# Entry
Amino acid sequence: MFKKILIANRGEIALRVIRTCKEMGIKTVAVYSTADKESLHVKFADEAVCIGKPASSDSYLNIAHIMAAAEITNADAIHPGYGFLAENSKFAQICHDHSIKFIGPTADMINKMGDKITAKDTMIKAGVPVVPGGQGLLESVEEAKGIAKEIGYPVILKATAGGGGKGMRVVYEESELEKAYTTARTEAGASFKNDGVYMEKFVEEPRHIEIQVAGDQYGTVAHLSERDCSIQRRHQKLVEESPSPFMTQELRNKMGEAAIKAASAINYESVGTIEFLVDKHRNFYFMEMNTRIQVEHCVTEEVINFDLIKEQIKIAAGEPITGRNYEPKKHAIECRINAEDPYNDFRPSPGKITVLHQPGGHGVRVDSHVYAGYVIPPYYDSMIGKLITMAQTREEAIDTMHRALSEYIIEGIKTTIPFHLQLMKNEDFRKGNFTTKFLETFKME
# Structure
């Protein structure tokens, strides 16, 4: 087992990893930008190293600075968390070359799933259902028109190196295609320095359901049930839950088997997530694989009572997986608490938290790195915490969530708490009647 792990991240995920390391008797090293010197992950780690100025490119994305921090602290492993360098194959390879264990998959595995065209081809060969579409990157508008005519409108253009909705456009008729193609390529190039785009059939009334997987260094892969992530705003998840209210046991078995096939196709090592689109007829299609721990991993942890970070560390240390095709025993819901104003188009709201009271009680978990007096910097993602509730039934979990949200007090900044309070009382949400388009018609009162 590792003696010391450097966490190449910030905020709540860095604190989350530190907590598990402490339970495992592993020393921790926090890295931080000058904007994060007062963050809790810095205070709770055994050691802390400043790695640069506030901009991510000068700190959390600066591989040379992170590796230097690992060298001077004698860390024998690096946990990347999520975001930043978590799915950067170059970083994983540099760790390997310097005999520091990257707690995640190998560079080759990241590359195979990081490019969506390559990933889709791999899934087709593995027998995993994929959305109908072109076989590679689009070379011209004329080619795009031909494929769209073949598979039928609506279609969706996606950046091959994309994420977070960047370089993505839905097209409902041919007259819209040329403009969408040009815009998608331009946006993809600006966001990812890769303007490659491809086309798929646009799945209408879709659910976004993902399967948590874990694979060890000995070829064993297991799934750990599903999460429904359909409540999204501009392709950014706001609420996740497990089990999915749309799920049947037959569908769970089929999707679980497909997820295992997908991970096994690249001999996947570590924890990861296979993401699917599921249509209204419960046909499911591979969308992408996240080769890292997810923001919403806590939902799975609560319904199956299992520490995914601990499993990830043990796998990296060469231990066989202990998870075995779990099924949810309870119901859990997660609301992302963002420093955003839901009454003003979710505009970011950085600043100083003047008052903070976090909820508690039976069935409530809060993962956060903030405290009263903490100043939220404007340089990073706006998520400041995750509120998770769990109960025997979905209805009870929702009721617990509403109660917990009502006693979650954050003053000095705007947050998404009012949005979540209204969502928990929404009749369609409570009945499980929603798709990824749900928030397009949801109005704040």
Q: What stands out?
A: The longest helix spans residues 177-192.
